[in-house]
């Protein structure tokens, strides 16, 4: 049985409630165990790598799911829940949701043809989240280059890091509400591309806002590593 220190997993959303979070303990030994100062090296001064995004709002707690950049956008929580349930069955109270997220991200990239890398484990799940930090620190899609650069710099990331990381948009989907203005108003957009996107994204705001379209037109489910090279 899991000790109270680890919490227990109940219900259908094991990663979504602060009270049911588990984390790796000093008792677990692994060659890939992170150090106790992991966060001071990898995420200094920020909330991050801690799965705080997974926490649901409650009557007394506001999480990050409904912060402007995340609201109606971040998806796939059920995938992490399914993995967590399976892991808990064989290894209760040990593997954090934050580790599952990091491994799932790596595995997704590999499955879609991208690069492989070793994921160190031992992240601890957050029992708190910051709605305000999510709003203030995640770049809005309307950001200028200067604003993007400074928000990345605030996390210790260079402009080069920013460009390389933005290559992640070689996979994934965007909502109509986020690209409607471009496909209907821009004059410097390929006409055929604009009209193909218009077919799945009505002109009127409030209509089809959450309709999804691939970010990468040609190879939407292939994680290329060449297109971002200059
Ligand atoms: C440079 C600042 C960034 C901005 C302004 C930005 C903006 C966006 C926007 C607007 C979307 C579409 C969301 C929607 O319509 O609901 C999106 C999707 C996505 N972004 Fe970014 N992004 C940035 C950086 C990153 C980084 C650093 C990564 C990862 C390394 C990333 C990975 C993704 C992925 C995988 C998707 C698709 C998600 C899905 O299919 O559910 N983005 N991004």
From TrEMBL:
Keyword terms of this UniProt record: Calcium, Disulfide bond, Heme, Hydrogen peroxide, Iron, Metal-binding, Oxidoreductase, Peroxidase
GO biological process: hydrogen peroxide catabolic process; response to oxidative stress
A GO MF label: lactoperoxidase activity
Subcellular localization, as worded in the UniProt entry: Secreted
Any Gene Ontology CC annotation: extracellular region
Residues the entry annotates as binding Ca(2+) 1: 46, 48, 50, 52, 64
Annotated binding of Ca(2+) 2, by residue: 170, 216, 219
Compositional bias ranges of the Polar residues kind: 195-208
Keyword Oxidoreductase on entry: yes
Cofactor binding description: Binds 1 heme b (iron(II)-protoporphyrin IX) group per subunit. Binds 2 calcium ions per subunit.
Disulfide-linked positions: 176-201
Binding site residues for substrate: 139
Main location: secreted
Positions annotated to bind heme b: 169
UniProt similarity note: Belongs to the peroxidase family. Ascorbate peroxidase subfamily.
Protein name: Plant heme peroxidase family profile domain-containing protein
Gene: gb00735
């Amino acid at each position: 049985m899991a000790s109270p220190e680890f919490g227990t997993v109940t219900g259908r959303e094991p990663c979504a409630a602060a009270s049911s979070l588990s984390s790796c303990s000093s008792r677990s030994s692994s060659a890939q165990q992170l150090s106790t100062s992991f966060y001071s090296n990898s995420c200094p001064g920020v909330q991050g790598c801690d799965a705080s995004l997974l926490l649901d709002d409650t009557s007394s707690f506001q999480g990050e799911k409904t912060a402007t950049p995340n609201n109606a956008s971040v998806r796939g929580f059920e995938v992490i829940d399914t993995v967590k349930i399976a892991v808990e069955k064989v290894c209760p109270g040990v593997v954090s949701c934050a580790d599952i997220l990091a491994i799932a991200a790596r595995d997704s990239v590999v499955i879609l043809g991208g690069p492989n890398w070793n994921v160190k484990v031992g992240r601890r799940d957050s029992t708190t989240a910051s709605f305000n930090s999510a709003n203030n620190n995640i770049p809005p899609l309307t950001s200028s280059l200067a604003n993007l650069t400074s928000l990345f710099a605030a996390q210790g990331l260079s402009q080069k890091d920013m460009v390389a990381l933005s290559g992640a948009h070689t996979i994934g989907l965007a909502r109509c509400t986020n690209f409607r203005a471009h496909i209907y108003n821009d004059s410097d957009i390929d006409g055929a591309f604009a009209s193909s996107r218009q077919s799945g994204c009505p002109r009127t705001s409030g209509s089809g806002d959450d309709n999804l379209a691939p970010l990468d037109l040609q190879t939407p489910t292939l994680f290329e590593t060449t297109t971002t090279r200059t």
